Amino acid sequence: MNSLLGLRALLLLCLLSLSLYKQSQAQEPYLFVLGVVQDAGYPQIACYAEHCLPGWQDASLARGATSIALIDPDGGSKYLFEATPHLPRQLFDLDQEAPPSQITLRGIFVTHAHIGHYAGLMFLGHEAMGADGIPVFAMPRMLDYLSNNGPWSQLVDFRNIVLTPLEDRQPVGLGSVRVTPFLVPHRDEYSETVGYRIQGPRRSAVFIPDINKWSAWDRDLAEVIASVDYALLDASFFADGELGDRDMSQIPHPLVTETMNLLQDSPASERGKVWFIHMNHTNPLLDSESAANRQLRARGYNVAREGLRLPL
Is residue 20 part of a domain? Predict the structure, then answer.
């Protein structure tokens, strides 16, 4: 009898330990992907080509511009990276994942002043959400642009947003997570452009949705990937010729094929860290059954999708 009681006690202890372990795991911060498409989303306005028509004919196929969230259940906080034109739907998805009654939106990090990355701030204004003092983290030129150009300046004047300055390669502490911006070369008409390193308690990520060719950057991509656990990288276009007769050299993003070739000598473990994101509506990677997608997976890479969770 005593041995049976002891066995039961041991079993209960094991179940309790497992439950506590799962609870602790659930409290760890993580990244949550909200959108994966280039600035204008899918289908793109005025695109009635064969690849766009399904998105117009079936609203369930529409996909939003690139955005990710940092969710910290233990700290009761969440942060958006990018305020896209699809912010209303993406904030709904975020609130479903991390209910505002338990986890508060404590800020938005912006990479640069192209429409897919900041235009969603308009929904925070008094005509829409009427937000109260949401911190917007951005670099100096970006903050200057928001401060001195309407309608964004009205968000500042009405205190819908509070501008919070960032500095190149200077980390910002967010509880158990650190976020560090770093400058990258891009078309900087109105602001500088940054990527972000996001360092959690156990894992880290880089988020680089927009950049010119990797050769234009002063850092080695393979070394950057080696320093983190996840790399969410610009995948605007899969290959040359994707835009028909248009000269793609005038849109200097790294082609996915170029990025894969650049990293071809890296170990499989390194290639597996890469999650391609920020795909143009023409990019065949948006079709999970495409030949391009099969080729990419065969070479050991990943394509980001909405709902993806990456533990930190």
Answer: no
Q: Is residue 310 part of a domain?
A: no
Tell me which residue range forms the domain holding 178: 27-305
What span, in angstroms and rounded, lies between the C-alpha atoms of 81 and 201? 19
How many domains does the chain fold into? Answer: 1
Q: How far apart are CA 103 and CA 72, in angstroms?
A: 8
- Bridge partners (DSSP) of residue 164 are 137
Supply the pLDDT for residue 64.
Answer: 98
Please write the tens of the pLDDT for every residue from 90-103. 999 999 999 999 99
Tokens of 65: 């511009």
Q: Order of strands, edge to edge, in the sheet holding 172-174?
A: 172-174, 177-183, 194-199, 204-208, 230-234, 274-277, 302-303
pLDDT tops 90 at residue 22: no
How many residues are present in the chain?
A: 312
Torsion of CA 287, 290, 294, 296, to 10 degrees: -60
Is 167 inside any structural domain?
A: yes
Name residue, tokens 């911190």: 135
Peptide bond into 209 cis (omega under 30): no
Give dist(CA 27, CA 21) in Å, integer: 10
